[in-house]
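ok, trying the design again with the full structure, not the truncated one.
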């Protein structure tokens, strides 16, 4: 009979917080790759548990996983196994905690107690599905039968599944064997919570955080009476999310003690951030309190897009969203519009060009010829789609189209379109974009938000908001919500006549794409908005902090205004090495040196989240992913969805871009492709593009805790001006690679 893997319920929670096993484990089951103890019986059955549970093995309950030839999840490509495993962990938790839901985008299908979900995000091309039986059989809380093809009738396959009673008997025998032989549990074996996870707010209870871990400013923020809207601001690493979560949980506890029937939402931009916050809550609250919270209905934690999707009931009508994650959704929209733009430039553009101004022609044709200029224009056009054309329903009304074409006055935040034919170009692109969405049978995240906006102005919402609306709304990563999305937040409150209570956390310097433009005018609606500025950094050394401060000192030369607030942060970590900048002659020379050093460092550190190579050039990123020499030396993170699949243990480094790993920290970071042409390629690039370069360097540099290496390319323009300024300020060393 095939071997079975049993994962205790506590070990499931542990892995959800600290990451799944690395790809090698699913074949070898090597206990050295895990941060929790493992017992393997003579027949090959595996028991994974926590050190605490090792003291009382007979009382353990677990979820069973059925192996196949070649290990577990053998049918799935190795790089996608951690993501599939994460989905299994969530399903297993839902068996014992009814408050945990299965995300709609996993395409769950239920038949009796059987459930199948997609094994990984649809964007990966993976079509296999995971089969899970959610019945509880004795001490076995659910059974994962591995992978099935997408066209299998799961009810018909039920008769061929292993009898749960047999699996329960195997589990009982395995526990007896493990208890008799004992599991090694010495002081040096006990897992020490990594600094990375401590900094992310994992490992301490809510009481410990409140009593002794918060800074004075964080404590004042948490204790502030929730009678009006408040904002917490600060650079990366100052604990904005931690303070937000502690305040929310303290508020829920206070409401429970006072028997106040209050309902809250904690909304954010990305699903990865949602998972990080859930991990924080799991470590801050005991299991019983956690289950009570998820079952109470007093808290909705998710992305704004998942809230829109669930509220509209879109799935019931057979309409699928492109994504329920703001980052990945916008990235997919960008890729789609880029393809449409290229086709349009070779055809319909020639007919429109004659009616456009010289400035628009120059900008459009620069975007045709230059990738950096094209990306900036695509982002501006998508913003026009999201905040103007979709909300106003321009595509559905000939009258509104004519109004859009003829209206001359345009707000400063909008795309500059001075001639009617320039607006027709945008309408053409929008029409082609919508057609692609229809052909794919999906709606974009911006279309979903526009539909949600119309619903929030409906009679149906007016009737039901007192029940399903919120007394206060907590928003993390506010800087990543665009103008339209921010406007929705105040419409989510229960009482339309009361002053909205919004608790917001932001750092606009992490906004690479200027999504937060106009934030100040939106926040003006909150009378007497109280600010809490965090300036104590716990994520990176004083030397890395000095480099980031040097970027701040350079920013006034670009006249960025409210787009780039100057922080006065001070690092609270011990001193470390000064960051260094190396100028390489070619991309190949950079690849050979950096990837070799990152591989050696990762093997020495033996932690899945210790070393990262972060590139600032998307085209080079794609080349690195395909290159063969070091392909087995890194874990690729190509989107925010991939974050949860980063293993906690292993000898590989992470390869990604700064925006994909926002919120994570690494002991050592190689920030590469920091070159002049990446940030400032030609006359077509304006202040907003150079601001994006600063933001990329700020976000990437602030991912490093102890060691930061920066590199650029001679054949890509050499060092950017802000790097030269940092060198002059002696915040970073500089040398040219020989």
């Amino acid at each position: 009979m095939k071997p079975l893997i049993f994962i205790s319920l506590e070990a499931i929670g542990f892995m959800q917080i600290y990451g799944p096993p690395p790809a090698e484990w699913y074949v070898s089951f090597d206990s050295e790759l895990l941060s929790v103890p493992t017992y393997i019986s003579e027949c090959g059955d595996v028991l994974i548990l926590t050190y605490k549970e090792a003291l009382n093995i007979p009382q353990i309950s677990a979820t069973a996983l059925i192996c196949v030839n070649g290990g577990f999840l053998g049918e799935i490509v190795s790089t996608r196994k951690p993501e599939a495993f994460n989905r299994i962990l969530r399903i297993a938790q839902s068996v014992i905690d009814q408050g945990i839901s299965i995300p709609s985008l996993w395409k769950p299908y239920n038949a009796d107690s059987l459930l199948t979900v997609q094994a990984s995000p649809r964007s990966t091309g993976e079509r296999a599905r995971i089969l899970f039986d959610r019945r509880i059989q004795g001490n076995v809380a659910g059974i994962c039968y591995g992978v099935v093809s997408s066209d299998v009738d799961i009810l018909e396959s039920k008769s061929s599944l292993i009898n749960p009673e047999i699996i329960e008997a195997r589990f009982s025998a395995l526990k007896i064997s493990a208890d008799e032989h004992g599991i090694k549990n010495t002081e040096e074996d006990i897992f020490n919570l990594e600094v990375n996870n401590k900094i992310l707010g994992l490992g301490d209870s809510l009481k410990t955080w409140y009593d002794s871990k918060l800074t004075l400013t964080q404590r004042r923020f948490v204790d502030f009476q929730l009678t009006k809207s408040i904002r917490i601001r600060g650079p990366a690493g100052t604990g904005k999310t931690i303070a937000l979560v502690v305040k929310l949980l303290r508020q829920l506890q206070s409401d429970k003690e006072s028997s106040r029937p209050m309902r809250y939402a904690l909304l954010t931009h990305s699903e990865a951030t949602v998972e990080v916050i859930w991990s924080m809550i799991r470590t801050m609250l005991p299991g019983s309190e956690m289950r009570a919270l998820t079952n109470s209905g007093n808290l909705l934690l998710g992305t704004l897009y998942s809230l829109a999707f669930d509220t509209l009931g879109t799935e019931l009508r057979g309409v699928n969203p492109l994504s329920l994650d703001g980052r990945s959704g916008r990235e997919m929209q960008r890729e789609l519009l880029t393809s449409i733009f290229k086709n349009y430039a070779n055809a319909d553009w020639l007919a429109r060009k004659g009616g456009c101004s010289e400035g628009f022609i120059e900008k459009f044709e620069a975007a045709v010829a230059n990738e950096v200029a094209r990306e900036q224009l695509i982002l501006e056009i998508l913003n026009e789609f999201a905040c103007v054309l979709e909300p106003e329903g321009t595509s559905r009304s000939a009258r509104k189209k004519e109004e859009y074409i003829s209206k001359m006055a345009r707000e400063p935040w909008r795309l500059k379109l001075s001639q009617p034919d320039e607006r027709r170009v945008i309408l053409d692109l929008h029409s082609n974009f919508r057609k692609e969405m229809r052909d794919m049978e999906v709606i974009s995240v911006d279309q979903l938000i526009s539909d949600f906006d119309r619903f929030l102005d409906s009679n149906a919402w007016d009737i039901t908001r007192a029940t399903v609306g919120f007394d206060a709304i907590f928003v993390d990563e506010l800087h990543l919500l665009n103008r339209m999305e921010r406007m929705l937040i105040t419409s989510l409150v229960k009482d339309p006549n009361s002053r909205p209570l919004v608790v917001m956390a932001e750092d606009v310097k992490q906004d690479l794409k200027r999504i937060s433009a106009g934030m100040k005018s939106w926040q003006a609606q909150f009378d007497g908005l109280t600010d809490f500025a965090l300036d104590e950094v716990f994520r990176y050394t004083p030397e890395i902090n000095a480099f980031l401060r040097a970027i701040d000192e350079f920013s006034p030369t670009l006249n960025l205004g409210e787009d780039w607030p100057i922080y006065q942060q001070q690092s609270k970590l011990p001193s470390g090495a000064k960051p260094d900048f190396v100028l390489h002659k070619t991309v190949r020379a950079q690849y050979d040196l950096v990837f070799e050093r990152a591989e050696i460092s990762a093997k020495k550190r033996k932690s899945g989240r210790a070393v990262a190579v972060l590139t600032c050039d998307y085209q080079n990123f794609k080349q690195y992913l395909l290159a063969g020499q070091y392909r087995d030396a890194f874990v690729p993170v190509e989107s925010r969805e991939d974050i949860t699949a980063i293993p906690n243990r292993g000898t590989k480094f992470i390869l990604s871009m700064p925006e994909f790993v926002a919120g994570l920290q690494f002991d050592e970071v190689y920030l590469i492709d920091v070159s002049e042409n990446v940030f400032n390629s030609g006359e077509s690039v304006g202040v907003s593009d150079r601001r994006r370069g600063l933001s990329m360097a700020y976000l990437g540099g602030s991912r490093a805790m102890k060691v930061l290496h920066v590199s650029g390319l001679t054949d890509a323009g050499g060092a950017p001006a802000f790097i030269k300024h940092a060198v002059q300020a002696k915040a970073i060393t500089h040398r040219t690679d020989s």
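Keeping the full-length input from now on. Residues 4-181 form one domain.
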